[in-house]
Amino acid sequence: MKKLEIVIRPEKLEVVKNILNDSGASGMMVTNIMGYGNQKGVTHIYRGTEYTVNLLPKLKVETVVADEKKDMIVAELCKQITTGTHGDGKIFVSTIDEVVRIRTGENGAVAL
Predict the structure, then answer these.
(1) pLDDT tens-digit profile of 7-66?
(2) How many folded domains does the chain comprise?
C-alpha cells in the first residue's frame, strides 16, 4: 500500500477528488495548509507599497491506495492539475506497512 500526500492549489481540489474517485481510492483527507516551495512566495503592490507574501494557501490531500494504482494516479494527477507555473504542488509517496480498521479489526488491503 502507498500513502499519497498531494499538495495542491486550492482551486484544483475538485479535479483531484474526481481523479481519486475514478481510480477507486477508498477515501481521502483534506487539510488547509500554508507554505511555499521554489517560488518563495509572491510579491504584491498595495497602495504603492511592495510587500511579499511568503506563505501561500495550499491544500494537502492524503489517501492510501493499493501499490498497483499508485503509478496511474500519480500520472493522471500530473497530467490534469498542472498549470506549468511555480506553485502547482508536489506529490509525496510513502510505503504503508499496515492498515487496521478500528471498527472491525480488519487489517491490510481489506481495511482500506
Answers:
(1) 999 999 999 999 999 998 989 999 999 987 776 767 777 788 877 777 889 999 999 999
(2) 1
Q: Could you tell me if 59 and 31 are in contact, meaning their C-beta atoms sit under 8 angstroms apart?
A: yes
Distance of alpha carbon 4 from alpha carbon 32, whole angstroms? 16
Domain span at 66: 2-111
Q: Which residues contact 61 (CB under 8 A, 6 or more apart)?
A: 4, 5, 6, 8, 13, 16, 17, 20, 28, 29, 30
CATH number of residue 64's parent domain:
3.30.70.120
**What Rg value do the Cα atoms of the chain yield, rounded?**
17
Q: What is this structure's pTM?
A: 0.85
Sign of CA pseudo-dihedral 45, 47, 48, 53? negative
DSSP 8-state secondary structure symbol assigned to residue 100? B
